[in-house]
Structures are given as C-alpha cells and as structure tokens.
Predict the structure.
Amino acid sequence: MGTPLQFGIISLLLSLVLGVPAALLAERLGIMDVPGSAPHKQHARSTPLAGGILLFLAFFFLALFYYSSLSRDMLAVLIGAVVVFTFGLLDDLKGLSAGPKLLGQLIASALLISFGVQVRFVTVLFETNAFSSTFAQLLNILITIFWLVGITNAMNMIDSMDGIVAGLGTIASAFFVGAAILSQQPMLALWTAALLGISIALYFWNGVAVRFFLGDSGAQTIGFLLASFAILYNPLNRNPESSWVVPIMLLGVPIFDTTLVVVSRLRRGQSIGSGRRDHTYHRFIKLGMMPRYAVFSVHLMGLVIGGLAFLTFYLEPWLALTFFLASIIGGLSFLFWLERKPTLDDDAGKKIS
C-alpha cells in the first residue's frame, strides 16, 4: 500500500504527466475561459479550464491501481467528488446557474451521509432518550450538509487568481496528512497525501506555468475533498472536546474569505453570487501589494492558521478551545477592518454582476 510520502510523490509525478493531456482535452471539448465573458474575467487569452479534469484523471488512476487501499468511507468520498466534478464540469462548459450546482453538491453530500460519512459530535450531547437521539442525528446531518456545501463553495469563491486555490489546497492537505498521521489514521493519511501531490502539480500548471485554470470543476472538487477529509478526521487518541477545532482552522482561509465577501456584498446591497473583485486577494492588491505578493499573503495566512491548529494538539481541551475562540475573535477583527477598505471595483466605479 505504501507510505504517505510514496503516495504523495506518485500523485505528484502522475499529475505532472497528465497536465498537458488534460489541457488539450479541455481545449478539444471547448471548455475554455474566454476573456470578457464576465466583467471580472480580465485575463489576456482564452484559457482551458482543465484543473478539474486533471484532478479527476489523477484520482481515477490512483483509485484504479490502489483499489485495495480504499476503505468504504474513502470510496464514498471519491464517488461524491465525482458528482461534484461532473456538475462543475457542466458549469465550466455551459455556465450553470446556482440551482443546478447546489443540487450537485446536495447529491454528493447525500451520498456521503448514506455511506455513514457525517459529523457525529452532536450525538454526544443528546444521548439520554430516543427523541433526543433522533434530534441529534438530524442536527448531525444538517451540519454535515452545511459543512460540505459551505467549504465546496468557499474554495470555489476564493478562486480569484492563478495559484490561490491550488496553493491553499497544498497547504491544507499537507496539514491534513500530518493530522492523520498523528491521529493514527493511515488510510486518511494516504489519500490526503494523494491530494497533496495533485495540488502541488495543479499549483505548477495553474500558478507557475499558467497552462490552464482550475475552473469550477477543479476548485469545487478540491473543496469537497478537503471538507470530506475533515469529516473523516477522527483522532481516537485525542480529546474530542478540542480535536474538532483542527479541521475548521485548517480550512480557515476559505472560510474567512467567504465570510468577508458575504458581509461586504450584503452591506453594499449586492448579490452574494455576483462575480466581483472584492475577495481577500483583491483587497490586498488595493492596499498596494503586487499580485504575486498578494497571493503569497493569502497562502501565508493558510500556513499561519494551520500552524496554530497544530498547536492545539498539545494543549489541554479548555486551553485549546480558548485558543480557538481567540483565533476567531482575531480573524473577525481583521475581517471587519479589511471589509471597510475599498475594493478594486469600488475604485474603478464599476458594478459587476
């Protein structure tokens, strides 16, 4: 079955090899991002939306050759990811409205829940009688759906510049590998290592070579996989009262960015789903950063928050929760400070819908 390091290297090499074929396939199918097709699409030339195709092909071959390393839960995650990828690919090709994309995410979430992949911490709070247990299970399901759909869309929304999502996917999956190893979950460690290798390759093709964009199919699938891995993270050798904060913190940057965008657009009377240049990256640009430094700053946020998440491993439960609360307060303070700053669209006097 191999080690996480071996799995990660194989995934990286496989994804580097598949990069050009994935881009050529996207071009052949007409899955292209055309400049000017939306007001916020200001790139110079038509670019293949091949990130999702590369992600799908890499996981397909890995699952085919390493099928024996797939648990029932991990197989459910990959099947759900295929559903999200399919709806994302249709969006890249035809431009779906929000409804069909949400439907795909709900179907994928329902598949995971039907396989028993869901959060369960609410059950501990309501285990006294049948009624409370039923209520707890309902809350577990609702929280699971909210988490999966929320993180899937958060990774898609933050995809505002080359390399951002691939870099955040690399950082989050690297920390998840470490968390899975510490929690003695070898299967989870292997497949998070696979995502790590693929994310590094995606960063090369999208952020360095700029050969293709991730597209909705790529960004949403990465988000769904990370959200699913967070649910599978179950450190039996750690205190459950504090260990649940780790996956939330590891995905703190897309959560932060989505919250920033939602608050900003609601306050300004704009549609939440509008394509605007008001994300964290864009605001860093407005503050005077060069684009590559703005991307680096977003990634640095992910590294810092991930490091803080790992610190909670070694704290008493009450101190870990206090640390988590302090991180939320600090994040909200930064969010509201940043939200008051003008966006690139405000500066240009544009209304992008």
Summary: Residues 349-353 have pLDDT under 50 and may be disordered.
